[in-house]
Design goal:
Strand content: 15-25%
Structural class: alpha/beta
CATH architecture of the largest domain: 2-Layer Sandwich
Shape: elongated
Number of strands: 9
Number of helices: 13
Radius of gyration: 44 Å
Strand order of the largest sheet: 3-2-1-4-5
CATH topology of the largest domain: Nucleotidyltransferase, domain 5
Order of helices and strands: HHHHHHHHHEEEHEHEHHEEEE
Length: about 400
């Protein structure tokens, strides 16, 4: 950059010396030619002229050789532009930006990610609490810096203190929550059936309480008593029951659960996400089963749902349980070679398939001298086969 600027200035100086030694008539003629050429070029240009630093420097230096009155006649720019170029040259001379030392280093990306992680995992922590936790981990950081990081991420640095959100409450109390809801099914003859479904949040265990065409409060209360008997000792580990504001869930229905120490939580109107897990199991029942079969009546629906509940609780994997079914505590460990023994088992009349490892055949000890062979003997004219055993 500097060599290019020096080269162009030297050429301009030699051109100026050549002009000074020439006659006035020759110089005047050349000026007229250059002016005319300049006018022709300006008419052909569609935009403004672009000047680099060397051009500006040279025009600014030549402006000192003539009076200000002739600047508008000689130079292709306005006087204000030339003065601005001169001021820029002076400013560049006294510019010390390249000599400045870098300021305080910015906070590293891993530290920012850790701060965001802490505030999401601990919604009640403010910026000063996070600063203290980082100091305990050996990372010194100002509370104002933590505040700026949280503010830039759209997180309130001073969180609310009224309590957890609904999602946080469900996650923390999942092992003690059971939810219920009604599932509506249309039969082949367009008869509407109602299915009362219960699901345990912690284990995702599904319970189909009953199927009826006319749900009443007394019927729902009886299904609640039946569920309490089926759960047995597990019923004592539950603390909350979630259901909507359906009038079928009467006071008698709630008393069955309150007698066991459960607290009834009713969802708000038109708020299905407050009972999201139960709503999701209803969708699963429709997608995997009910949308793929024709229901004939109450008995048929009860049989189909009973078989599906056995499949759901004993075989179907769940993401929230690390791909384990509700009734399975740990996944079996198998070698890769065992995949060759996988067999398909149709359930629910072949609508759903289960896959299991085939049982290994038990080998009997073989005798090298005496072997037992079964010979089928078919009776003539009777069509009855008999098995005779002989020793060889």
């Amino acid at each position: 950059m500097l060599l290019s600027l020096f080269y162009r200035l030297v050429r301009c100086l030699f051109g100026l010396l050549a002009v000074l030694v020439r006659s006035d008539l020759s110089k005047d003629a050349e000026l007229l030619v250059l002016r005319h050429e300049n006018q022709v070029l300006r008419r052909q240009l569609s935009g403004r002229l672009r000047w680099d630093h060397a051009d500006r420097f040279w025009l600014t230096a030549l402006s000192r050789l003539m009076s200000h009155r002739r600047w508008a006649e000689v130079f292709p720019v306005t006087p204000a532009t030339i003065l601005r170029w001169h001021r820029n040259l002076v400013a560049r001379k006294w510019d010390y930006a390249s000599r400045r030392r870098p300021g305080r280093p910015s906070t590293g990306t891993p530290v920012k990610a850790l701060i965001i992680r802490m505030v999401r995992e601990n919604p009640t922590w403010g910026h000063r609490r996070i600063q203290g936790e980082l100091a305990r981990l050996g990372h010194a950081i100002a509370a104002s810096t933590v505040w700026e990081i949280l503010h830039a991420a759209g997180i309130d640095p001073a969180p609310r203190r009224v309590g957890p959100t609904w999602r946080q409450f469900l996650t923390a109390q999942a092992h003690a929550i059971i939810a219920c809801d009604f599932l509506v099914v249309e039969t082949v003859l367009l008869q509407r059936l109602y299915v009362l479904v219960f699901i345990e949040h912690g284990s995702r265990r599904l319970h189909v309480a009953g199927v009826t065409a006319r749900p009443t409060g007394a019927w729902a209360a009886q299904q609640a008593r039946n569920l309490a008997m089926d759960l047995g000792d597990r019923f004592g580990a539950l603390r909350f029951l979630i259901h909507d504001r359906d009038p079928v869930f009467t006071a008698a229905f709630g008393e069955v659960f309150k007698a066991e120490g459960l607290r009834i939580i009713t969802t708000l109107p038109k708020a299905p996400r407050m009972n999201a897990i139960c709503e999701r199991i209803n969708g699963t029942l429709r997608r995997e089963l009910l949308d793929r079969i024709l229901v004939l009546g109450e008995r048929h629906l009860a049989l189909v749902l009973g078989e599906y509940v056995s499949h759901y609780n004993g075989h179907r994997p769940h993401q929230s349980r690390q791909q384990r079914p509700p009734d399975v505590q740990a996944q079996p460990v198998r070698a890769v070679a065992d995949l060759r023994s996988v067999r398909r088992k149709p359930v629910v009349a072949g609508v759903i398939n289960e896959y299991h490892h085939a049982a290994l055949p038990q080998l009997r000890p073989r005798n090298s001298i005496f072997e037992r062979h079964t010979i089928g003997v078919v009776g003539k004219g009777t069509g009855v086969s008999r098995n005779a055993t002989c020793d060889l």
